[in-house]
Amino acid sequence: MVSRCKITVIKRTLDVQLISEFLDEKRGSLKPCENCADGQEYIVTDIFTPPKGFCPWAWADIRHAVARVATGGQLPGLRMEGVEIAGCTDWFRPVIFKIERID
Which residues have a Cβ under 8 Å from the Cβ of 96 and sit 6 or more positions away? Predict the structure, then answer.
């Protein structure tokens, strides 16, 4: 059985140290990801398709976690059943997501 899931944006971050070490000044000053907002929620009804308005790059990074949670999987050591934390791989300004089974 495949359950619906809710993706919540826990936080958008900015790694100033990595930015200053690896990016040139032409990039300008980066800000936290503009594709989402802290606390924003998305409902996943189909594990093969990102929710409407969800960043396709972030979806590519977290879809395996969404599929695991939606199909009843659980990573060992997590405190809450049916909940997983995942993030996008923009390591200059990563976004951290909570994925939870809601059905």
Answer: 9, 10, 11, 12, 13, 85, 86, 87
Quick: pLDDT tens for 43-97: 999 999 999 999 999 999 999 999 999 999 999 999 999 999 999 999 999 999 9
Residue with tokens 């969404």: 66
Residue extents of the structural domains in the chain: 5-101
pTM of the model: 0.93
Q: What DSSP line would sit under 64-100, residue for residue?
A: HHHHHHHTT---TT-SSTTEEEEE-S-TTS-EEEEEE
Place of tokens 């594990």: 47
